[in-house]
Amino acid sequence: MLYSIRMRAAEGGPHEQGGHHISGAERLVTKEELEQISSELVHRALTHSKGCADFIRITIDAIPDEAIHRIPCLTIADEQTDGHIGEVPTTNHEATTPPLPLSSHQQAEALLTTHTAITPVAFRRAVSQLVSLPESMRGAMLVDMRTGQRLDPWGQRGVRVSRMSFADETAAITALNAAGYSGVHLEEALVLASKVLSAPGVVGELCISDDPDYTTGYVSYGSTYHRLHHMKPVGSPLGGRLFFVDATADIAAIKNYLETTVTLVNPPTFSLQGENHETL
Ligand code: PML
Ligand code: MG
Question: Regarding beta strands 224-228 and 240-245, do their DSSP bridges make them parallel or antiparallel, or are they unpaired?
Answer without folding.
Answer: unpaired
